[in-house]
Amino acid sequence: LPQARAGIISTVEVLKVMEAFVNEPNYTVWSDLSCNLGILSTLLSHTDFYEEIQVFVKDVFSPIGERLGWDPKPGEGHLDALLRGLVLGKLGKAGHKATLEEARRRFKDHVEGKHMLSADLRSPVYVTILKHGDSTTLDTMLKLHKQADMQEEKNRIERVLGAISQPELIQKVLTFALSEEVRPQDTVSVIGGVAGGSKQGRKAAWKFVRDNWEELYNRYQGGFLISRLIKV
């Protein structure tokens, strides 16, 4: 992909190579594919090809998604669990119908306390339901954040809130980032999640950082978090 971004080879050729990996079982390979497709989606988000790349993502990731399923299989290793989370998150975010429906069903059971989501499925499920969610979805996620006993779960939720799509809800997430509900050291994760969530999120996050620069700079001056904020 770096060569494609530099204009050395055609992006079409890169996508053809990616298609050849549909039967690949290795987590590291899929992680690399996912990362590169994420970069490509970001680059294409300002073009007419964005929806088409989402269709491509669904086509590439659905065979491995069907093979892995939602539940652990006997004898599978840690990397299989990581791969499952990666693949289901990618499919859900891209709007794969069956993945979205199952994520919503499992999220409902989780919220109602019927069946708690395993730690490795929480992020992909949260991302999926937020990406295709509404104000009720966001309110539910913020409630889960407030109720969470473990800081790990609070951070998990903070990182994915930016997946929400509607402009007014994006603003709500950004306001939340600077609230007392979020530890100062974790504010950058929330803003970064918004910046990486969508084209609208990127613009909103950039404006938010400019509008609140003085407060953010005073918070983090001289520390690594200010450079991380600028990077995201």
Written overview of the protein:
- This protein has a domain at 1-93.
- It has helices at residues 2-5, 11-19, 27-44, 50-68, 78-94, 97-111, 119-131, 135-147, 151-160, 167-177, 187-195, 199-211, 213-220, 224-231.
- Helices cover 72% and strands 0% of the residues.
- It has 232 residues and is an all-alpha fold.
- The longest helix has 19 residues, at 50-68.
- It is built from 14 helices and no strands.
- The mean pLDDT is 91.
- 29% of the residues are buried.
- One of its GO terms (cellular component) is membrane.
- One of its GO terms (biological process) is proteolysis.
- Keywords: Aminopeptidase, Hydrolase, Protease.
- This is PSA aminopeptidase.
List keywords for this structure.
232 residues; mainly alpha; globular; ERAP1-like_C_dom; metalloaminopeptidase activity
Question: Mean pLDDT across all residues, rounded?
Answer: 91
Number of strands: 0
* Poorly predicted runs of 5 or more residues: none
Q: In what range is the share of β-strand residues?
A: under 5%
Question: Radius of gyration over alpha carbons?
Answer: 18 Å
- Name the overall outline: globular
Q: How many helical stretches?
A: 14
Span between termini: 20 Å
Share of residues in helices: over 70%
